[in-house]
Fold these 2 entries.
Entry 1:
Amino acid sequence: MENAGNGNKKLRSWDDLKKLRAGEMAKNGEKRTVLLVGMATCGVAAGARDVSEALAAEIKKQGLKNIDITATGCYGFCYAEPMVEVRVPGKNAVRYGHVDKDLAGEIVRRHLMRGEVLDKYVLTQEVTRP
Amino acid sequence: MSDNYGQVRIALRNCGVIDPEKIGDYIAQGGYDALAKAIFEMTPAEIIDTVKKSGLRGRGGAGFPTGLKWELSGKSEGDEKYVMCNADEGDPGAFMDRSILEGDPHSVLEAMVICGRAIGARQGIIYIRAEYPLAVKRLQKAIGEAEELGLLGDDILGSGFDFGIRLYLGAGAFVCGEETSLMNSVQGGRGEPRIKPPFPAQAGLWKKPTNINNVETYANVCRIILNGWEWFRQFGTEKSPGTKVFALAGKVNNVGLVEVPMGMPLRHIIEVIGGGIQNGRKLKAVQTGGPSGGCIPEEHMDTPVDYESLVALGSIMGSGGMIVLDEDDCMVNIAQFYLKFTAEESCGKCTPCRIGNRRLLEILEKITTGGGAEKDMIDLDELGNIVRDCSLCGLGQSSPNPVLSTLKYFRDEYLVHVNDKRCPSKRCTALLRYFIMPEKCIGCTVCARNCPVSCISGERKKTHVIDQARCIKCNTCYEKCPVNAITKE
Ligand SMILES: Cc1cc2nc3c(=O)[nH]c(=O)nc-3n(C[C@H](O)[C@H](O)[C@H](O)COP(=O)(O)O)c2cc1C
């Protein structure tokens, strides 16, 4: 993006768009753990905001670094909201359903800190996206 | 791209995967490349041709071929044209469009710009119901971010092409989802349908050529442009290519959103993807298409889901509501529920819909409260057909479907209501009678103390009795009795 310096972020060509994409993909390629919280109406109604806050609080309490909590839309499993997907670099993405504040704490302490998958609450596991 | 149990995610590709409030996430998934391709590598005619060949049909209800619609609005003369997105989603029980807008707003924005490029329009309007505040917020954020990056607004990607999108909030009338009422509503008029022709493609918003599509229709477009029409046609059937998103609700275990290739049997959607019926009950019917649709009975569950097959069964694809009914649901009651909705939502402009639906509802109310006769069933059928054939817009043309389809497939249930004054599923409360079983009653007085109209009498430790004349059938005694001594029949 030629104009990036002067506060104007406008893309002036398809190449600009491709460059921006490459930058975004590089960001995703960084070795960071991501917690995706379902924040569509179904998730919010089921208490996703509390879950998100509980995750953040536990991460802070445990002093963990390099973990992002990100909001996302509805994956379709409305019956199982609130949902949290754990993406640890190099591991299968694990999607938990029916998460409450207590389970949020456990996910941080057991899954993130000890690499333990809490089988009982797993909805789906997927081979990690490249 | 394949997901669990045969689902294919095209319209929902990014939902639950990206952060909808970050345009960078969308771009990282290939976002806005379809737009760049459409601007820099394709002529408007080529864009339209690709959409036509893909066989994409409108996901908002009627299933009109999208490419043909674009071609018609493209051909209409005029330097001022509009691209509109119908995000009114008024069907009770439907939430597909909301989920797409909340989970992936850019996919709709990008497709609208492509459409503008194809038909020669520079203004887009999304008509969204005000009851969707989160979707509105995310759309506003998305529009702002796209403008900042020059993907919306003047001189998009330095190409010289200008296109802007704004939101119009609807006030929640069902009829405003009908495209011409929607346009009247945006113009500040009453939400009443217009006579067609002229069609919106010729004279739509402010009498200018207008292309209007549903949210999910647009959500398919970018992938078709990027991957080609042949790719899209590998999914679905010859006449209904691609996928359809359904809002699966009712008595099914896994309530939620599913996206399946067209042509998948209903049974697979309900029993495999939906995980079957709750509490091990039996599937009785599926209601598709909301208030404009009908009820499809269990024996037709192997029907493939596509536009034509559902119409052949007296229902419609509609926007994608799919409500699963089990043996505890009364079909007369269901028909009454939907008719009450449409009778209330009729705008009143044309007589068959305004008065016909009201009369249909009154007959159904008579049947569900014990005043019906067999003649009423003949009247329902006759009047239903008149309303369907004579109404001005799709609301009245489809509102009798829930009644007509249940009359066709569940005739016996109607007969029990009118002849025996009984509701086999025990749903029509007015037809129910509550009794206390003497052999079970322990005389604890709980029912008598909780009865809101004090119609239960009996001494402590002796059998209690319900006064049928005064009972309001509120079900309280049934719920409170500690020894399940109350029956209803
Ligand atoms: C009473 C009534 C309500 C409607 N509600 C909606 C709606 O909420 N959303 C929608 O997309 N289409 C709705 N439609 C269909 C629209 O009139 C129109 O066909 C559709 O927006 C066209 O888009 P499509 O070709 O992409 O399906 C409704 C039609 C009727 C008759």
Note: Chain B has a mean pLDDT of 95.
Entry 2:
Amino acid sequence: MSDTGREKKNFKRKAEATMKKLFVTVGTTQFDTLIKAISSEKTLHALSELGFTHVTLQTGRGEIQPQDQPRDKTSPALTCYGLKNSILEDIQAADLVISHAGAGSILDALGCGKKVLVVVNEELMGNHQTELAEALARQGYLHFCGVSSLLTSLREMDYSNLVPFPSGEPQKFAEHLDHVLGFS
Amino acid sequence: MWIVLIGLCLIGAILLLSVLYLLSGRKHVPKRDKSKDTVSLLAVMGSGGHTREMLSLVTALGGHYSPRYFIIAETDKMSEHKLQQIQTSNSEIIYIPRSREVKQSYITSILSTVRAVLFTVPVIFRLKPDVILCNGPGTCIPVCFAGLLLRVTGLHNTTIVYVESFCRVKSLSLSGKLLYHLIDDFFVQWPELKHKYPRAKYIGRLF
């Protein structure tokens, strides 16, 4: 490995060592395969290796609500809930957000300046929501993967190269609408 | 069989409306002054991401958009809560039946859309909003239908504005496809869509 390569890798480790809190959100949908995958022993073990100490799962309309079981000391603490009026606090508290591919959840997480890994629901493949994750990943705002590649992605993704997401400009729309309606 | 017939009638009605609408063209817009004049606004809330996007559009609008009516589906508790946070004395929430739940089949969608249209038309005719703002949930179809009726019958000069959701990158939603030819002010959030649908407007990312 070249010196710069090694430096990059070290930087990545350093950046990820500061990631302690993970928030997983499925919005108002049902995405039990993601919840199952995250709460599996294997994934929790990998998360603890990456330095995560807390994992909060927002399970939406899903049927699975994993309970925090006494595991080995290093395993991250698990909190879980279905729906809440606002998940912004949980997003703000997180170092990494794992989100379903819904626009609302993605915009909330990116808007809070968080590192985002979108997990696409492979059961809905061909669904237009995959397009959004792909397009945003192409622009370097986030990473995305499927449930089957979640574990590998968690271990290998480099979040240090993500580009900050500029906020949208709803005021441009307001100006346009004023013009259309004849307001000077 | 009759389900298909109702569907055909609905599509026929929409086509007829669009022809009339295109013939009527954009009506003359009066000069307005923000400090004196107000316009009534009716915003159709979807659910989840749709509501989030609509709220950021509505909150960007000035105080001259008054009164403000918010239409939400009767089953949508989440939007109701979010709306209550931005409600003021000049705003009102109106509940209407859902025209299409996610994953509902196209055939039963037609039936519930007919039910929603029958409910919605009188509401819109009573409110006569100056602007209808919608962004893609099934609920917006009957509302826009009623808005178009207001225009073509000359009862009110309602401007209908459609903003396609940020989640549509390469293709329009079902509502978007139905409304694309009927609406002057049709916004998309991705330049790819603008290329595919030249009548659409792209003025950057709004959310």
Note: The longest strand of chain A covers residues 115-120.
